[in-house]
Structures are given as C-alpha cells and as structure tokens.
Write a structure and sequence with these properties.
It is built from 3 helices and 17 strands. The chain is mainly beta.
Length: about 250
C-alpha cells in the first residue's frame, strides 16, 4: 500500500520525503529554531478526509533516534489537520487517533497521570459537545486546576469532555515494530507487536485523514492554562521510516 498513488508527500524547510527499497522515509536534516521543517505523507487534499470507523490501521515503523534523543514531533495515524503552518484564520478543534511522539519542551498533558511528552498511543476530540459547553468556564478552570487537589478532582471531567485518552509506550523507537490501531465507533484499540497497549474509551468523530510525519516543532498545552508553541533546533538528520502501511475496513 506504500506505493499507492493516494499518498501525497509534502515537505518544508529541511524536510525530505523519499521512497526506496519498499521503505518510505520522512526526514529532516539539521534545522534551526527559526525555521519550521517538516516531512510528511497524507491521503487528503484541502481537508477532504475519507476515513471513518470501523477500520484497522497497521504500520511497521522505526526511527533514527531513541525517545530520549529524537527532537520535535513525529508519528502516524488519523487527524483532522486542525492547524496548517502559514495558514490564516482560526485553527480547528483537534480530533485524532494516533501514535504520537513529542520531545521536551513538548508538554501536552491532556491525560491525568501521563507525562506531556514521549511516545504515546492517544486519542482526542475537542469538538465534542461536552467540551464546547465547558469553554466559557475555561478561564476559571485554569486557575482552579493550579491547585493540585482541585486538579485531581476537576481534570477528569475536562479529560472526558475532550475525549482525551493516552498511554505512554515503552518501545525502542530505533527498532522496527508493528503498530496497530483499531478505530471503532465507541473505542480505539492500540497494539504494538500484537500486544494490546491501550484502549481509549473515546472514539473521535470521522471523517479523518491519515498522516505520517516528522517535524521540529513543540507545543505546550496544559489543564492549568499554560500554552506555548515554537520550534526546536536539530543538529543531526533524523527520520521516521515505514515499510508497511495498511488501512482495512472492519
């Protein structure tokens, strides 16, 4: 399926997408913190997404660096492309089901008890009615959740509202692994090498588009109202490689 003409490559900055020996590689060469660099493949144009549950995604992938050494973000799965660098206008509320990596200073601490960075199996759907109803209360909520006891009490409500569910993966990124994502209407099941590693009770609404990427950006989004976005300098070539990619209806 990797050779399917549906896949559209895109790169910017020092990003490079290549296909050789039945392996797709998304890479970024050394980049400064003043330049956005990205290499990705997708299967959509102008947010015309085609995937809805139930389906199974199977990917065999590995990376150039370990989770301690890789910089920026990387991963693969389904999302609604809420933000396009350089695009004007307000971003969309994010919806995604994917395997996602973010290095420090990334800190998207959206699941209680799970660090805001690392290699994760994750879901989010911030377009749910529960989240929209809570938006007017967000400024007060941010302040209250800076008190640890109130955070422990209040954030589970917010996490359910955004459909947030994550598990950090203890996987050697530099070695090939088989990743599987089963997207059902009422849950998302994640497996690595045939072993179940996470079940999200939240299923993001479709349709969504497929993406596999690596870039040098970071984002800070916390329940305490801390928000920041920026770029990370990279000093070495780093890449994400895939030699198997299948999407099958269930």
């Amino acid at each position: 399926m990797l050779g399917d003409p549906r896949w559209k490559s895109w790169s910017v900055g020092s990003g490079v997408v290549s296909f050789a020996d039945h392996t797709l590689t998304c890479a970024i060469d050394p980049a400064s913190a003043q330049q956005y660099s990205d290499a990705q493949i997708t299967d959509y144009q102008e947010r015309a997404f085609s995937w809805s549950p139930p389906l199974r995604l199977t990917v065999r992938a590995w990376a150039s660096h370990s989770t301690q050494e890789l910089k920026g973000t990387a991963g693969f799965g389904f999302w609604n492309e809420p933000f396009v660098p350089g695009e004007r206008g307000l971003p969309r509320l994010p919806r995604a089901a994917w395997f996602f990596f973010g290095s420090p200073p990334n800190n998207m601490a959206l699941a209680k008890g799970v660090p805001g960075w690392g290699w994760k199996a994750a879901t989010i759907d911030a377009g749910r009615i529960g989240f929209l109803l809570l938006v007017p209360l967000a400024p007060l909520g941010f302040l209250l959740m800076r008190i640890p006891a109130l955070y422990r009490w209040l954030w589970p409500v917010g996490q359910r509202a955004i459909g947030g569910s994550e598990a950090r993966l203890d996987v050697d990124l530099t070695q090939p692994h088989d990743y599987e994502l089963e997207w059902h209407t009422n849950r998302v099941i994640f497996r690595v090498d045939g072993t179940q590693v996470h079940v999200s009770p939240h299923s993001p609404r479709g349709p969504l588009g497929f993406i596999a990427w690596i870039d040098n950006q970071y984002a800070v989004v916390t329940p305490q109202g801390r928000f920041n976005f920026g770029l990370i300098a990279t000093t070495e070539r780093q890449w994400l490689a895939l030699d198997r990619l299948e999407i099958q209806p269930l």
